[in-house]
């Protein structure tokens, strides 16, 4: 594992770039307007030269070899590129002035060439220190540029795209990132890796296929570099350097700085990282280059003294955190992070396998607000919230400035994310609750519009305000929830992994090569949003085989594919003959997920049972958006509601609770639509049948509300965690929908079962967004 080797502290502001020449020489550049050449003396690095030429931040650096000589190249906010002869650093050998804005990236090319990228939306290929090509076509800043072995060039931009160029001409685009592309590295002659502000790394082949998407970072990923052994190194706005091997995050190093701007690696395998605390950190695996006792102690003290931002703590349920006694239990793996509640404080610790101890890495506190503006799609915002719409899938970014109406920001997010407008109040209230008074930075001509101010200068505080002063009556659920977010290629990779295990464990159950190809075809179709799924020719028998014959704990990726498939309009023929295979929906559910296995009171829900149940409930939620699915669900509803009630009684986890509540929302939306226009919707369904299942659904929802309340009574708790609040919001929404359908009938039921008084009780103890509007409807 990598451990601290050295901490270099000569810079006085953010270190924005590092570049390695060899094992004994590297350079760092900083917002303090300097470039430093570091050379190894004995076992440590010393500042050999401090170069001052740029009239502004120095933001990028690389080394090149030209005609047998080594040169240092630096780029800055003054729009200039300086080229320094390593053998004579008294002054720059060349000054290059092609760019019209900040030079934010530099990289070594082949045969003495190098590449530069700029906020002026262009990249330049330099040969013999003159312009060879100017690459024009991006709509925003070019943050990354590399030359490949075949002479073509890749650029990554704040416009979210990656473009391949040959001889100055655009030949291919790669789209996949959801925010600014910040870094690129070639992995082989025909593959490369990219990193972006969406928090992900993506591995591509040159044909344009995304081979893998790596998640782990919790904020913008600024830089990637490669180890000679093939591992990927990434650094981000989340205090971490992460090591990736075979697409897995094998090590996470926490540093005492918010922004880890840049990384590079040495031929000997050491890692260099430049950060916002003006330091350069070096990490090594080699025992002979690890830091001495004082260096390790200093690094641990810096981490321990570092204070996390308010947003970190606000995402934690501090009531359930363990106390200091948990530190008596060894960690499960090296670098494991643990949050401990010590009095009123929350302390982060990391397990040190070598030292066999927990190391304090920081205090999480409410006292510190945001230190810098946040970036989203090339623009500055006071807040960029990460919204987890579906577990295991990419988060959505919700940008917000304190000067705008929270409801405007919420509506913009809903439209862009294609989610139900019923969440408008919920999202707006989330913004209000999580964006308390924020200081607005003053203008500064050196402000970086893509990464925020270089330092935060408080000026004026805007207090939290309530945009809703009047009670508004609930107006009903508009539209359906569609659970269609997913990564089919990652799901297919999981199937391949499990199939490989089955070949050893139960060969007769494993899919053949031809069957795997059929599953891959479905995955490829699902990965292309422009494909009309209903018009494609395909078979689902291999997916159904895996979902119904594989070991129960291996079935979830097939169920997840079926969830994505049912988000498409596949038509009644495919649904009835391919998925149900001529049987009933209840038979399909039992044969694939065995939800009935918890039918008795003593049966417990295992984690994998909850995973399977979550996939099934998401699939049923999607089926309610199609007429053939609605008909089948009406026919199967008694058993499904019975199973939902059993699950609800056993404290389901967040993902399963959200899946069931989404199913209830869609079912109530369907019933409302039927009641509004029965003949137009389904002439084959009787009003009596709809009334019967309406009552079943209503009883399930009101019963769940009651059980949540009862559990609070048993624990004498009057507060609700965020998951409970989110579930209750959805359930209250469904209650409101039924009251709109038949106010007299369902109000009587609510009163007779004490549900109205429960809802009013909730309203006094929580911030349920739908409560006031539903209560106004009941008045």
CATH topology grouping of the domain at 488-778 = Leucine-rich Repeat Variant
CATH architecture assignment name of the domain at 488-778: Alpha Horseshoe
Radius of gyration over alpha carbons?
29 Å
**What is the number of beta strands?**
38
Summarize this structure briefly:
The protein is α+β, with helices and mostly antiparallel strands. Helices cover about 35% and strands about 30% of the residues. Among the domains are: about 310-365, no CATH class; about 375-460, Roll (Ubiquitin-like (UB roll)); about 490-779, Leucine-rich Repeat Variant (Alpha Horseshoe), CATH 1.25.10.10.
Output the keywords:
4-stranded antiparallel beta sheet; 33% helix; Leucine-rich Repeat Variant
């Amino acid at each position: 594992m990598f451990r601290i080797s050295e901490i270099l502290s000569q810079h006085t502001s953010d270190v924005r770039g590092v570049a390695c020449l060899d094992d004994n020489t590297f350079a760092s550049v900083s917002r303090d307007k300097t470039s430093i050449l570091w050379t190894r003396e004995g076992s440590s690095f010393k500042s050999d030269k401090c170069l001052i030429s740029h009239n502004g931040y120095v933001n990028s650096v690389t080394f090149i070899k030209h005609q047998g000589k080594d040169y240092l190249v630096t780029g800055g906010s003054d729009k200039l590129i300086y080229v320094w002869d390593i053998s004579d650093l008294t002054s720059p050998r060349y000054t290059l002035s092609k760019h019209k804005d900040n030079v934010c990236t530099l990289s070594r090319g082949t045969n003495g060439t190098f590449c530069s990228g700029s906020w002026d939306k262009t990249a330049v290929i330099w040969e013999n220190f003159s312009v060879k090509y100017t690459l024009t076509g991006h709509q925003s800043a070019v943050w990354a540029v590399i030359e490949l072995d075949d002479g073509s060039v890749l650029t990554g931009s704040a416009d979210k795209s990656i473009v391949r160029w040959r001889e100055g001409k655009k030949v291919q685009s790669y789209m996949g990132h959801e925010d600014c592309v910040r870094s690129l590295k070639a992995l082989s002659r025909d593959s490369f890796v990219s990193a972006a502000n969406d928090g992900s790394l993506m591995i591509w082949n040159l044909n344009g296929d995304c081979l893998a998407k790596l998640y782990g970072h919790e904020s913008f990923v600024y830089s990637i570099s490669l180890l000679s052994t093939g591992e990927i190194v990434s650094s981000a706005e989340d205090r971490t350097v992460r090591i990736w091997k075979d697409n897995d995050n094998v090590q996470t190093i926490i540093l005492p700085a918010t922004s880890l701007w840049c990384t590079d690696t040495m031929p000997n395998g050491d890692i260099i990282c430049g950060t916002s605390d003006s330091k350069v950190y070096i990490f090594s695996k080699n025992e002979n280059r690890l830091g001495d006792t004082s260096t390790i102690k200093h690094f641990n003290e810096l981490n321990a003294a570092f204070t996390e931002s308010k947003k970190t703590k606000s995402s934690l349920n501090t009531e359930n955190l363990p106390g200091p006694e948990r530190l008596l239990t060894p960690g499960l793996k090296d670098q494991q992070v643990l949050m401990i509640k010590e009095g009123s404080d929350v302390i982060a610790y990391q397990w040190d396998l070598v030292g066999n101890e927990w190391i304090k890495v920081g205090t999480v506190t409410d006292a510190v607000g945001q230190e810098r503006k946040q970036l989203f799609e090339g623009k500055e915002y006071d807040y960029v919230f990460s919204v987890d719409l579906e577990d295991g899938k990419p988060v959505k970014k919700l940008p917000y400035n304190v000067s705008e109406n929270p409801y405007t920001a919420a509506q913009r997010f809903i439209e862009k994310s294609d989610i139900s407008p019923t969440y408008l109040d919920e999202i707006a209230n989330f913004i209000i609750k999580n964006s308390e008074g924020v200081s607005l930075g003053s203008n500064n001509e050196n402000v970086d519009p893509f990464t925020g101010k270089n330092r935060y200068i408080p000026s004026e505080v805007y207090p939290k305000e309530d945009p809703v002063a009047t009670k508004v009556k609930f107006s009903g659920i508009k539209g359906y929830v569609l659970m269609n977010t997913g990564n089919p290629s990652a799901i297919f990779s999981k199937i391949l992994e499990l199939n490989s295990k089955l070949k050893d464990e139960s060969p007769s159950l494993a899919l053949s090569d031809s069957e795997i190809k059929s599953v891959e075809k479905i995955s490829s179709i699902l990965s292309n949003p422009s494909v009309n799924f209903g018009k494609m020719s395909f078979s689902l028998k291999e997916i159904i085989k895996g979902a119904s014959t594989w070991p129960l704990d291996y079935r979830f990726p097939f169920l997840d594919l079926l969830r994505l498939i049912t988000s498409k309009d596949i038509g009644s023929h495919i649904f009835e003959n391919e998925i149900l295979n001529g049987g009933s929906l209840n038979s399909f559910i039992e044969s694939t997920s065995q939800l009935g296995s918890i039918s008795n009171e003593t049966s417990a829900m295992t984690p994998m049972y909850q995973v399977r149940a979550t996939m099934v409930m998401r699939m049923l939620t999607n089926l309610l958006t199609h007429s053939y699915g609605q008909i089948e669900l009406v026919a199967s509803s008694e058993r499904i509601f019975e199973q939902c009630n059993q699950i609800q009684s056993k404290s389901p986890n967040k993902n399963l609770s959200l899946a069931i509540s989404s199913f209830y929302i869609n079912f109530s939306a369907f019933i409302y639509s039927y009641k509004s226009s029965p003949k137009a919707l389904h002439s084959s369904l009787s009003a009596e049948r709809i009334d019967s299942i309406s009552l079943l659904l209503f009883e399930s929802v009101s019963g769940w509300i009651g059980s949540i309340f009862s559990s609070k009574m048993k624990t004498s708790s009057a507060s609700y965690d965020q998951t409970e609040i989110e579930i209750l919001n959805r359930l209250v929404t469904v209650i409101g929908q039924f009251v709109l359908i038949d106010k007299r009938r369902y109000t009587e039921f609510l009163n007779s079962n004490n549900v109205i008084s429960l809802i009013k009780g909730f309203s006094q103890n929580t911030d349920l967004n739908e409560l006031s509007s539903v209560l106004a409807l009941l008045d």
